[in-house]
DNA sequence: AACGGTGTTGGATT
DNA sequence: TAATCCAACACCGT
């Protein structure tokens, strides 16, 4: 499911739903979702209150009282929603955060790939997974110059380079295909071969596209919903992802799908020529 | 009905 | 060090 726009939309919904709620009890139906000692996870969180919910890249950061943070990654299909404590437990619910007001936050994940982990709030950005993240894709953090310098050193195709989160945080398979189409860059172009002008275009497309997707509440392909269980609307703005065989909006050439770095990759063979 | 593909990440391998 | 491959899991469409 979720790339940066979806995670951000989930974050905004969760803030409205669970901020300042106190956890009375944690129920772990599938403890493997938790990284580290699951009893410690449970014992630590019981009694704490959710004070803020942040985001870094595709990671949600739940800040609790007592200087504790839960780092949560939804991976492919993780989702959070709120239920009453007497509502039936759905099939793929794995973690339940029961609040003192008889509401509960439930973590649901069909594929069980998502993970959550407790760390001291002061140590969050020392986590290996967060430490490696590149800048947030907003103009104030994401410098064109720095992006260009790093790309010139990458002896790797641009698509996997953008997916690995170190050049810029938050892009996944959908938005990478979209921003490359926007920038007329072939996904198999070696990053170091990109021209100055293309890098600038790509940089700006990343910022703009992700901002637009956040405004639209993210992209729902099959299962993504936000914390209120609403779908996003950005799927209607996509130009290449899932459009195999449909005509390119710019030049009317059929969109092609290939595999690049083990990921399905959609592009226009006419607009996005290899450099 | 079996098989390949699915929005992600990180550990193993080279 | 860095690039590449693949497992973790369940479901869906062909």
TrEMBL record:
Cited CDD domains: EcFpg-like_N (cd08966)
Judging by the UniProt lineage, the source's domain of life is Bacteria
What catalytic activity is recorded?
2'-deoxyribonucleotide-(2'-deoxyribose 5'-phosphate)-2'-deoxyribonucleotide-DNA = a 3'-end 2'-deoxyribonucleotide-(2,3-dehydro-2,3-deoxyribose 5'-phosphate)-DNA + a 5'-end 5'-phospho-2'-deoxyribonucleoside-DNA + H(+); Hydrolysis of DNA containing ring-opened 7-methylguanine residues, releasing 2,6-diamino-4-hydroxy-5-(N-methyl)formamidopyrimidine
- Entry keywords, A to Z: DNA damage, DNA repair, DNA-binding, Glycosidase, Hydrolase, Lyase, Metal-binding, Multifunctional enzyme, Zinc, Zinc-finger
A molecular-function term among this protein's GO annotations: double-stranded DNA binding
Enzyme Commission numbers on file: 3.2.2.23, 4.2.99.18
Cofactor stoichiometry and binding?
A: Binds 1 zinc ion per subunit.
**In the UniProt record, does the keyword DNA damage occur?**
yes
Family assignment? Answer: Belongs to the FPG family.
Quaternary structure, per UniProt, is: Monomer.
Protein name per UniProt = Formamidopyrimidine-DNA glycosylase
Q: Which organism is it from?
A: Liquorilactobacillus cacaonum DSM 21116
């Amino acid at each position: 499911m979720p790339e940066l726009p979806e995670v951000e939309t989930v974050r905004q919904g969760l803030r409205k739903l669970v901020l300042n709620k106190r956890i009375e009890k944690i129920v772990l139906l599938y403890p493997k979702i938790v990284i580290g000692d699951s009893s410690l996870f449970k014992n630590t969180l019981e009694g704490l209150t959710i004070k803020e919910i942040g985001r870094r890249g595709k990671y949600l950061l739940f800040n609790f009282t007592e200087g504790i943070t839960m780092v949560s990654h939804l991976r492919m299909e993780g989702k959070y929603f709120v239920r009453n404590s007497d509502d039936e437990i759905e099939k793929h619910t794995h973690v339940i955060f029961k609040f003192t007001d008889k509401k509960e936050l439930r973590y649901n994940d069909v594929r069980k790939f998502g993970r959550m982990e407790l760390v001291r709030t002061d140590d969050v950005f020392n986590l290996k997974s967060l430490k490696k993240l590149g800048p947030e894709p907003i103009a104030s953090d994401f410098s064109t110059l720095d992006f260009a310098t790093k790309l010139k050193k990458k002896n790797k195709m641009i698509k996997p380079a953008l997916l690995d989160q170190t050049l810029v945080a938050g892009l996944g398979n959908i938005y990478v295909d979209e921003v490359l189409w926007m920038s007329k860059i072939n996904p198999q172009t070696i990053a170091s071969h990109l021209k100055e002008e293309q890098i600038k275009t790509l940089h700006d497309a990343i910022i703009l596209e992700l901002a637009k997707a956040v405004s639209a509440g993210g992209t729902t392909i099959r299962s993504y919903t936000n914390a209120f269980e609403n779908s996003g609307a950005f799927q209607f703005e996509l130009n290449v992802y899932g459009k195999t065989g449909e005509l390119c909006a710019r030049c009317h050439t059929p969109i092609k799908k290939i595999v690049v770095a083990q990921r399905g990759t959609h592009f226009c063979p006419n607009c996005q020529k290899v450099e």
